[in-house]
């Protein structure tokens, strides 16, 4: 009875002239057709036939895609992350002085993406951006990148689908429903730009026909490598994706004629991958040479702050936890891994095998570096086009196992539901409070003052006339290179918040110190390593006075936060002792003040009445936490 409800398997054409059509390796049925072993139970439930996307009318399917796109687009429009303001400060300084620096005269690469910085600075210069207009600049760039990602990935998915409606629709659905793409378009960072380059690289990869076992268009393979090189220049960790893809294809790709083999096939695949990675190696070498010439470092300072000097066991633990939190954002990813592990027929597809192995190597790299503290799977964004390609190939072959059928069905349902049930993203809490802090200190604190703080994005961007010490080390080479041996501060369990150095900060003798989160708190109550070390120093207790000042905001600004407090205060420490000769001789306190003043404008003058500071003994009071 159950077998009568199934369509007969399509015949697989025999090979001609030692070569097979990749589209002929699978039957025409969709991947979610219920197998015979389920019988009337699956069909009676009505779930699996409903999930056969090839049966959907075109208008219904397009309506689903548009609905998911609109949900993803407008529900997260208030989101912007604090770290994006770091890149914006670098871009503004680059335009004003020609120096890609955070503080004038201090050469530290505190941004991750050279390509993104160059694009943001160029667009900001051409548009004459000032103040909050910089947020629109980076969002506009990301919007173009998102459109490019959608278009290029759709083309790659179409080429991989062998003109099967079920497969093409599955890949496009996985792409459009991927909430991380849309969230990080608004978020201001470079992940979506890297995804655009990766999607263009996949499109050119498919055009080259290398995946059929015969490199018919070598120029397209080289073009794919160029796009991947731009992805690496945008996000260095995509180098792992490229290296993993090359290794996976050399070891597991098809030989001439579409057969997996050794000997001449292995050599041909190796030569093809050498052609593919050569632009990546060239561009990466140029970036390394520029980085060494400019910053005298081989890696971005963010690598040293987040990875170097941290025990690998700690990184792997936080990395695995991070992957666990990402499963709901991309539910098709774990289902894909289970499907290939359980179904040998799926593993016979060289393109699917390559895409899955490349994704696995990329995920292993994410685990090794310790994951990320930012929301909505930022590190997975460049991998989404590859996941859509893998989902397309997976939908070409009907699984032989009922459990694989149900795993893929559940994953497809979860893919549709993920953007529906996910709560809206608001302005990152550090960016929300940090903007108020930056506007106030720009107006009230003396220009050229040295400020130590943990929130390095919004406060520093909105106070261009001040100089800063990033106490988490993203923009400070000394703190970033510290070897960490203790993890007694609670925030050290959060990736990117492991480091600090209270003694070093005190040696810089900052004029102001904001301990804790963006709005500040007592140093002794802070959860950051550097703050706790500061609180134990005799000089800190003797030379710094705790003060608080109101941070006013209106209802419009409050609507950008998920849970805005009724009132907010900035809690900070002001230096009361004179600066020693050592700090003055170092040039750190007064250097480049004239350059910094060139960018000081009406930052924070939005018609709000700024508060007046109130002094407190260091042992009293406390800040109001937003986090």
Rough outline: globular
Helix content bin? 40-55%
What's the β-strand tally? 6
Query: How is the largest sheet built, in terms of strand order?
Result: 2-1-3-5-4-6
Low-confidence stretches: 1-47, 256-264, 584-612, 616-627
Major β-sheet profile: 6 strands, mixed
Mean pLDDT: 82
CA radius of gyration is: 27 Å
Alpha-beta content class: mainly alpha
Report the sheet-strand fraction.
Answer: under 5%
User: How far apart, in Å, are the first and last alpha carbons?
Assistant: 59 Å
What is the number of helices?
28
Notes on the structure:
It is built from 28 helices and 6 strands. With 627 residues, the protein is mainly α. Helix 6 (133-160) runs parallel beside helix 9 (191-208) and helix 11 runs antiparallel to helix 17 (350-369). The radius of gyration is 27 Å and the shape is globular. The model is unreliable at 1-47, 256-264, 584-612 and 616-627 (pLDDT under 50).
Structure characteristics:
single chain; 627 residues; mainly alpha; six-stranded mixed beta sheet; 53% helix; globular; disordered N terminus
Short note summarizing the structure:
The chain is mainly alpha-helical. It has 28 helices and 6 strands. A 6-stranded mixed sheet has the order 2-1-3-5-4-6.
Task: Describe the secondary-structure layout.
Blueprint: H1 40-45, H2 47-51, H3 58-74, H4 84-97, H5 114-127, H6 133-160, H7 165-176, H8 179-187, H9 191-208, H10 218-234, H11 238-252, H12 264-295, H13 301-306, H14 312-326, H15 332-342, H16 344-347, H17 350-369, H18 384-394, H19 402-421, H20 429-444, E1 450-453, H21 458-462, E2 467-470, H22 477-480, H23 502-507, E3 512-514, H24 529-535, H25 538-543, E4 544-550, H26 555-558, E5 569-575, H27 581-586, H28 593-597, E6 614-616
Parallel strand pairs: 1-2, 1-3
Antiparallel strand pairs: 3-5, 4-5, 4-6
Helix pairs in contact: 3-7, 4-5, 5-6, 6-7, 6-8, 6-9, 6-18, 7-18, 9-10, 10-12, 11-12, 11-17, 14-17, 15-18, 15-19, 17-18
């Amino acid at each position: 009875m159950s077998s009568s409800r199934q369509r007969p398997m399509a015949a697989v054409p025999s090979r001609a002239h030692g070569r097979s059509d990749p589209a002929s390796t699978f039957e025409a049925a969709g991947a979610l057709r219920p197998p015979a072993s389920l019988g009337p139970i699956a069909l009676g439930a009505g779930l699996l036939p409903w999930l056969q996307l090839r049966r959907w009318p075109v208008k219904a399917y397009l309506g689903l895609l548009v609905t998911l796109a609109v949900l993803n687009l407008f529900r997260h429009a208030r989101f912007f992350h604090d770290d994006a303001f770091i890149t914006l400060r670098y871009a503004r300084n680059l335009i004003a002085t020609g120096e890609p620096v955070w503080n004038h005269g201090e050469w530290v690469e505190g941004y991750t993406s050279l390509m993104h910085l160059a694009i943001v600075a160029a667009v900001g210069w051409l548009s004459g951006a000032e103040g909050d207009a910089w947020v629109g600049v980076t969002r506009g760039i990301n919007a173009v990148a998102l459109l490019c990602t959608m278009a290029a990935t759709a083309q790659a998915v179409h080429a991989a689908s062998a003109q099967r409606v079920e497969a093409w629709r599955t890949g496009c659905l996985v792409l459009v429903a991927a909430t991380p793409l849309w969230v990080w378009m608004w978020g201001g960072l470079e992940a979506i730009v890297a995804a655009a380059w990766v999607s263009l690289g996949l499109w050119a990869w498919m055009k080259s026909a290398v995946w059929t076992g015969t490199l018919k268009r070598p120029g397209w393979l080289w073009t794919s490598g160029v796009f991947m090189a731009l992805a690496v220049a945008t996000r260095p960790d995509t180098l792992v994706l490229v290296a993993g893809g090359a290794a996976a294809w050399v070891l597991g790709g098809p030989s001439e004629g579409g057969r997996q083999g050794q000997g001449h096939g292995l050599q041909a695949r190796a030569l093809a991958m050498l052609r593919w990675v050569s632009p990546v190696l060239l561009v990466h070498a140029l970036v390394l040479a520029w980085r060494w010439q400019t910053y005298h470092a081989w890696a971005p300072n963010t690598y040293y702050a987040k990875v170097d000097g941290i025990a690998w066991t700690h990184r792997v633990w936080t990395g695995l936890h991070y992957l666990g939190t990402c499963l709901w954002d991309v539910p098709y990813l774990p289902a894909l891994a289970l499907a290939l592990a359980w179904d040998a027929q799926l593993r016979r597809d060289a393109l699917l095998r390559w895409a899955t192995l490349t994704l696995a190597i990329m995920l292993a790299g994410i685990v090794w570096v310790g994951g990320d503290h930012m929301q909505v799977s930022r590190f997975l964004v460049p991998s989404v086009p590859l996941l859509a390609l893998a989902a397309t190939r997976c939908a070409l072959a009907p699984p032989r196992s009922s459990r694989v059928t149900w795993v893929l069905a559940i994953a497809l349902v979860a893919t549709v539901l993920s953007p529906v049930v996910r709560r809206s993203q608001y302005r990152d809490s550090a960016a929300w409070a940090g903007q108020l802090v930056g506007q106030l200190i720009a107006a009230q604190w003396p220009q050229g003052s040295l400020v130590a703080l943990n929130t390095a994005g919004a406060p520093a961007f909105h106070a261009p006339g001040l100089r800063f010490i990033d106490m988490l080390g993203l923009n400070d080479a000394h703190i970033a290179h510290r070897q960490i041996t203790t993890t007694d501060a609670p925030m050290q369990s959060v990736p990117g918040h492991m480091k600090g150095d209270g003694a070093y900060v005190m040696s810089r003798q900052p004029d102001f110190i904001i301990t804790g989160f963006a709005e500040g708190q007592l140093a002794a109550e802070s959860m950051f390593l550097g703050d706790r070390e500061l609180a134990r120093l005799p000089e800190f207790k003797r030379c710094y006075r705790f003060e608080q000042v109101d941070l006013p905001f209106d209802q419009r600004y409050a609507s950008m936060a998920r849970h805005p407090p009724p009132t907010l205060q900035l809690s900070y420490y002001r230096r009361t002792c004179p600066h020693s000769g050592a700090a003055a001789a170092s040039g750190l306190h007064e250097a480049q003040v004239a350059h910094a003043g060139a960018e000081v404008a009406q930052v924070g003058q939005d018609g709000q009445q700024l508060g007046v500071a109130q002094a407190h003994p260091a042992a009293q009071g406390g800040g109001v936490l937003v986090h």
